[in-house]
Amino acid sequence: MKGVLIYIVLSSLFLSTLSQESVPTPRPPPNPQDAAASARYLIAQSLWGVLSTLAYDMGGAPFGNAVSFADGGIGDPYFYLTFIDPTTANYSLKDQRSSFTVSQHPLQTCGVNDTQLPSCARVTLTGKLIMVDENSDEAGIGKRALFGRHPHFAGLPRSLNFNVFKLQVESVFIINIFKPPRFPKVDDYRRAKV
């Protein structure tokens, strides 16, 4: 119960500070025919998405939660998470498979289109969610990226043991045109200039 209460307080803090985030002015999206660049653009421009992990306490069912993130520069999203968060608590060290989904709709660059229409892009990255070694250079890179996009993270209580996590991207799924979903190669996604 105490963990749930702390989570509710953290969620309230998160929602109350959204207006303080470093929201970039979205650039126009790339040519929608370029699936890799379109996916990379969406990850680079977005501030939040839905991180889904496997809930081992629910028999391995998927569990998704809206989380803030930052792109570290090569397309692997970084997260600042605590094990009090159900997304992380459900994330099992036995099975790190996870997915992360973002929509173009919050960027307000798809006009009045409904979120589900293909002309309003959505991307799902799948891979392994790993906790970055806090003493590594990568943890510093992740923190700088996260705190740059979400300055309120710097004020979160140390007692809650937030850590930098990263989704090691293994596959990319995108719908952004009226055609079947596309799966650009991860290397093409990483190399795309946005």
UniProtKB/TrEMBL annotation:
Keywords: Signal. GO terms for cellular component: cytoplasm. It comes from the Eukaryota. InterPro entries: CREG_beta-barrel, Split_barrel_FMN-bd. Residues 30-178 form the CREG-like beta-barrel domain. Residues 1-19 form the signal peptide. This is Pyridoxamine 5'-phosphate oxidase family protein. It comes from Forsythia ovata.
